[in-house]
Design brief:
Layout (H helix, E strand, L loop, with lengths): L8 E4 L18 E4 L5 H11 L3 E3 L7 H6 L1 H22 L4 E7 L21 H20 L3 E6 L2 E2 L8 H13 L6 E3 L5 E2 L2 E2 H12 L6 E4 L5 E2 H11 L8 E3 L17 H7 L7 H22 L2
Parallel strand pairs: 1-2, 3-4, 4-5, 5-10, 6-9, 7-12
Antiparallel strand pairs: 8-11
């Protein structure tokens, strides 16, 4: 957004005030407002005072595993909060454009490939909450005429992923094992196939969706799936190691609800604004591993 000349405002909650590491380089270029998706009064205050032209709601409880144990919080923050924002936009200024990313986890168990018309059968509270967010955006668009667009994002990765996510867990482990700082990497079901995209490509797609004349719903994915095992093998290959020697399976990491292989059809987005996945698996894994190796080398050099 800064690169496109936007004046950027963001929302920061009390429990996240010590977690600004991903935006340290731009803190002097943006304005942060105190607030919380659980608190409608703070949302109203910020939207009413800033009067933004576009709102991108990338905030939620976005971890599938956590959603099994945080049902109420996930349904509120990932789902209901979208209704709060849209209702405030309707009351403050109905011309404000709104973007809501949702998730392929909404499909859960579905036929291949999935399109924007495929039915939802989520297998986690996270997937259920995202389906609610999707329907809320559609409701405010169709009933009240708001510019409320959604993108059904399939997995999107980058070096900014937290270590709780399996992809970053893998790339950091590959870096650490290559430096002799870790012996094994324990994972859950490594046979699961996932469509791995690059977060940077998907955010560019989000901006393109907001520049359309009419609000709509689009699937954003690569259309290709790879197993966790293949992702790990590619990561270890980047540091010259054989993944099979270092990976172990921990039953505790298996999820209670298993989602089918999700493969999307992005042809609608392709026709609407020329969307094409730019970054494929090998390049994506290389970006992440090289980042983690570089960061680890800095830590080793500094003695930390």
């Amino acid at each position: 957004m800064l690169g496109k000349g936007y004046e950027v405002h963001g929302l920061i909650r009390r429990s996240a005030t010590g977690n600004k590491k991903n935006i340290l380089g731009i803190l002097n270029k943006i304005t942060l407002h105190k607030g919380d998706l659980a608190d409608a009064t703070s949302l109203y205050r910020v939207i009413n005072s800033v009067r933004p032209q576009e709102v991108y709601n990338f905030a939620d409880q976005d971890h599938v595993s956590w959603s099994y144990d945080s049902i109420d919080y996930t349904s509120d923050i990932t789902g209901a909060a979208v209704g709060r924002i849209l209702e405030i936009i309707k009351q403050v200024d109905g011309k404000i454009k709104f973007f809501q990313p949702v998730s392929s986890n909404m499909f859960g168990k579905a036929r291949i490939p999935q399109t924007e018309e495929s039915y939802f059968r989520p297998q986690s509270m996270y997937g259920c909450a995202k389906a609610y967010a999707f329907l809320l955006a559609r409701y405010y668009r169709e009933v009240f005429g708001l510019f409320a667009s959604t993108a059904i994002f399939y997995n999107h990765e980058s070096p900014r992923r937290s270590e709780e996510y399996v992809t970053r867990k893998i790339t950091k482990a590959a870096a650490r094992i290559s430096k002799g700082l870790q012996k094994k990497l324990y994972l859950g079901d490594i046979s699961i196939k996932i469509d791995f995209g690059y977060a940077k490509d998907y955010v560019e797609a989000a901006w393109s969706i907001m520049q359309q004349k009419k609000p709509d719903e689009f699937i954003i994915c690569t259309g290709e799936t790879y197993s966790i095992r293949e992702f790990a093998e590619e990561a270890f290959k980047c540091v010259g190691l054989n993944a099979k020697k270092y990976i172990g399976i921990d039953p505790k990491l298996l999820r209670p609800g298993k989602t089918d292989t999700l493969t999307g059809d992005f042809s609608k987005a392709s026709k609407a604004f020329g969307y094409r996945p730019k970054t494929k698996l090998k390049e994506l894994v290389k970006i992440m591993v090289e980042h983690d190796v570089k960061e680890l080398e800095k830590e080793i050099k500094s003695g930390s």
